[in-house]
Q: What sequence folds into this?
């Protein structure tokens, strides 16, 4: 697999986004979208230097426990309550090339389905040893991994009886600001995935399945933690050979 | 049959949800001790080159209610028009300017606020100069995929009039939605997600 685009500076613009693969802005079954969805057409812009560049983050900013949600908020010698899991995978682009140095940030509810947030009112208990946030940066092959507890499902005010399936939120930076992505990961075998109005904002079943992490028995650590594998795909770039003449060339 | 292009599909976006602060600005929502500081809070230091400005505003939904659970990220060139990015091949950016900022909208009044510098001009794809601008990316509960737009500057009327992107806006009254209004060193831009004042959002 060629990786030269990640070794050399990348200057190509990104493939046009396949908007039919993503949720539309207006998804009435997810009620909050009704007043927060733009109604005018988006203005199309083939990426300029303002969007094909993006911030980069160094490995040096990552603390030792940043990718360990079991311990990064826990009192010394204690740990978060819940099913111990490892989430790992690769960040690739649409050309199937690894995205090295990608910053991933993740956040989630605790094992009982409760978030540590002042607006959260669910009656499930707060875990004093669980904060719910972590981050890491991909290696040269695009790999990442973190340790956490499996989040619980929880009810939310939308329909009378709507529940979120267990999920982990991901925020991803690639190499260009146009690649910026926030998404959610679900767990293999959870029947609640198919009942969730937020999941169902995505029209294509195959696209939803791209958000479901399989149990990875091979990477499961005996007597310690099960593993789930979640690969993330960011937009790919055109080769610079296909770009218009740039200023000064 | 033909050959396979071997392309992957982009991971679908999902809403950032109501608790985006936990993941992206934990200190802002009182989760202390995990990260020393929240990322994106400081774009400049005392050695950063360029004119100091602030960019601020609010985000309104279609009912003219201010969003108090949103998140804005900005990305911009330095004072000379270079980006602090490995993909920037035209020159070297000011090492004392990150170019990237992140700010949650206030839980009280919904205001987002960035202390930054006024960016230099950067070229469009065909070599014409774009007017100075800041790229914005907006996420929140109820927004299924992050929204891109730009903030241009009210005191750059000539450059704005010749800007290749602003020139493409068919309904000319909507150009104003992308122009931050200057008052002293503060530029204000309000984002309207829908309605008669709907911001021009970009499919980048």
A:
């Amino acid at each position: 697999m060629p990786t030269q685009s990640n070794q050399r500076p990348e200057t190509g613009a990104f493939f046009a986004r396949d908007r039919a693969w993503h949720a539309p802005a207006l998804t009435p079954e997810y009620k909050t979208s009704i007043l927060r969805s733009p109604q005018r057409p988006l203005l199309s812009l083939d990426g300029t230097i303002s969007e094909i560049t993006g911030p980069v983050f160094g490995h040096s900013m990552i603390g030792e426990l940043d990718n360990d949600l079991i311990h990064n908020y826990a009192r010394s010698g204690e740990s978060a309550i819940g099913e111990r899991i490892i989430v790992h995978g690769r960040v690739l682009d649409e050309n199937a090339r690894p995205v090295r140095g990608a910053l991933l940030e993740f956040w989630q509810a605790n094992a009982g389905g409760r978030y540590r947030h002042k607006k959260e009112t669910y009656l499930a208990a707060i875990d004093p040893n669980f904060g719910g946030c972590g981050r890491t940066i991909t290696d040269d092959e695009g790999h990442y991994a973190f340790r956490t507890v499996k989040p619980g499902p929880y009810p939310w005010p939308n329909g009378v009886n709507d529940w979120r399936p267990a999920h982990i939120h991901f925020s991803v930076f690639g190499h260009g600001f146009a690649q910026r992505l926030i998404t959610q990961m679900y767990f293999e075998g959870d029947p609640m995935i198919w009942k969730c109005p937020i999941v169902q904002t995505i029209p294509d079943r195959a696209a939803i399945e791209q958000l479901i992490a399989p149990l990875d028995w091979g990477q499961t650590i005996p007597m310690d933690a099960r593993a789930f594998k979640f690969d993330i795909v960011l937009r790919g770039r055109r080769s610079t050979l296909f770009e218009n003449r740039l200023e000064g060339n | 049959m033909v050959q396979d292009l071997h392309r992957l599909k982009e991971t679908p976006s999902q809403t950032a949800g109501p608790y985006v602060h936990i993941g992206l600005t934990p200190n802002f929502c009182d989760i202390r001790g995990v990260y020393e500081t929240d990322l994106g809070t400081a774009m400049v230091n005392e050695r950063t080159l360029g004119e100091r400005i602030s960019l601020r505003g609010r985000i309104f939904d279609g009912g003219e209610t201010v969003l108090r659970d949103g998140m804005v990220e900005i990305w911009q060139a330095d004072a000379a028009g270079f980006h602090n990015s490995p993909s920037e091949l035209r020159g070297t950016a000011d090492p004392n300017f990150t170019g990237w900022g992140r700010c949650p909208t206030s839980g009280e009044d919904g205001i987002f606020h960035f202390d930054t510098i006024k960016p230099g001009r950067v070229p469009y794809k065909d070599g014409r100069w774009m007017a100075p601008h800041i790229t914005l990316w907006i996420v929140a509960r109820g927004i299924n995929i992050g929204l891109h737009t730009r903030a241009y500057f009210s005191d750059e009327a000539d450059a704005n009039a010749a800007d290749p992107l602003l020139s493409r806006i068919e309904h000319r009254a909507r150009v104003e939605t992308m122009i931050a209004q200057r008052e002293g060193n503060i530029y204000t831009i309000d984002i309207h997600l829908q309605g008669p004042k709907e911001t021009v959002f970009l499919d980048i």
